[in-house]
Amino acid sequence: AGCLVGGFVLDRHNQERVMAQYTHMLERGEYEQAIELKPGRIEAYIYQVKRFRESEGGINRQEIEDMESLIYRHQDELISEDAYSDLCFELGISIWYWMEGDKEDSIIRASAWFELADTYVNDRCEYNPQVLLIYRGIGYFYREINPHVEKGNYRKSEFKAFWKTLCQMQDVFRKQEDMAELLRCEAYCMMILSIKNYMGQFRVAGIEKLEMRQQCQRIYTQLKEGDFSLIDGRIWVKYQDTLNLEYIEELVEDIDAVD
């Protein structure tokens, strides 16, 4: 019995030592080492995913693939933690905004993580669930609907749903305090480009020209009055051509001319 008690105490002390080491690594920003030490703990993953956003050149695909592999490898342990949904959400955000390459590819890749975030959502999650639903809706459109649009293989209801999501995005993203300027830019740009690219489909789906024009005019006014100086230059370069007053003026003219 004495051996059993001694072994238990020794094991407990060892666990406390490892946990103290893990905590010190987090405090020093040694997130990769912390993950190696305790791969079933979720904090270091979240910190590392957020650190990706500080990279000068954005996040390259190899970094994303390495993080995805790491999470999948330890998923059985990680999903038992309440914060697993937060981790999936934060990885989706990092891919959506900061991954190098084509934006559509980023949206589709990020959507898988937003789906997982929704699967494991709980009342302790730190993100706004409305924001998650918007990312999921847009991700679904680009993943499942958009590839078939050119061939005409879509339903009117799908574009009605997409329009509804875009309008919700305008309302919800404008009210967010975290990453406020970035989210407003994303909402404006997504609406402008969607009207530009799918104007005909929206009209067939029953979206009135007045509705599209009003959205454009609202964004136009916000851009004239807004200050986007806090936007990271690496991000702003992706938006500057679309969030341009002349571009929006021309788009309104196109709306007026469409049947």
Uncertain runs: 2-10
Shape: elongated
Tell me roughly what share of residues is in helical segments.
over 70%
Our measurement of the CA-to-CA distance between the termini, rounded to an integer number of angstroms, reads 87 Å
In DSSP terms (H or I, runs of 4 or more residues), the helix count works out at 13
Query: Rg, please?
Result: 22 Å
Q: Report the order of strands and helices.
A: HHHHHHHHHHHHH
Tell me which oligomeric state these chains represent.
single chain
Mean pLDDT: 90
Say how many strands there are: 0
Largest sheet: none
Structural class: mainly alpha
Strand residue content:
under 5%
What does this protein structure show overall?
This protein has 259 residues and is mainly alpha-helical. The chain has helices at residues 2-27, 31-37, 43-51, 61-73, 75-78, 84-98, 103-119, 129-145, 156-174, 180-204, 209-225, 233-239, 245-257. Helix 3 (43-51) packs parallel to helix 6, helix 7 packs across helix 8 (129-145) and helix 10 (180-204) runs antiparallel to helix 11 (209-225). It is elongated, with a radius of gyration of 22 Å.
Give a short summary of the structure.
The protein is mostly helical and 259 residues long. It is built from 13 helices and no strands. The longest helix has 26 residues, at 2-27.
SSE layout and pairing:
Blueprint: H1 2-27, H2 31-37, H3 43-51, H4 61-73, H5 75-78, H6 84-98, H7 103-119, H8 129-145, H9 156-174, H10 180-204, H11 209-225, H12 233-239, H13 245-257
Helix pairs in contact: 1-2, 2-3, 3-6, 6-7, 7-8, 8-9, 9-10, 10-11, 10-13, 11-13
